[in-house]
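TODO from last week: model PRD domain-containing protein.
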Amino acid sequence: MKERMKILLSNNVITKESFESILLVIDYFNREWGLSESNEQYQMIMTHLVRATDRIKQGKEIQDGLDCDIYNEMESMSEFSFIKEINSYICGMMGLREVPETENSFFLFNITSLYEMRS
């Protein structure tokens, strides 16, 4: 996982600031949730997070958020308030003070997916 991030950095796909932050996030999820870096979905989520962070900081956020039905289903989960707390914590680690709702809907979806992968 860290090698993938190094490749993105060396090819100027992500910034050094986001690279350093995503390493902290990866370590957090590995340590706290016991996630495997070899899991393809986990790798995709971390890649999305680091790329979205740079997009947001550059003012180039996406226009459309997560499908409303999927979001409503996720929001009805009993764990949703916990997922929102973790999302806020992770956004802070990435240096994001304000996250557009469109991006945040996908962040919450990704955190939910990671939550379901925990060991």
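Done. Residues 16-33 form the longest helix (18 residues).
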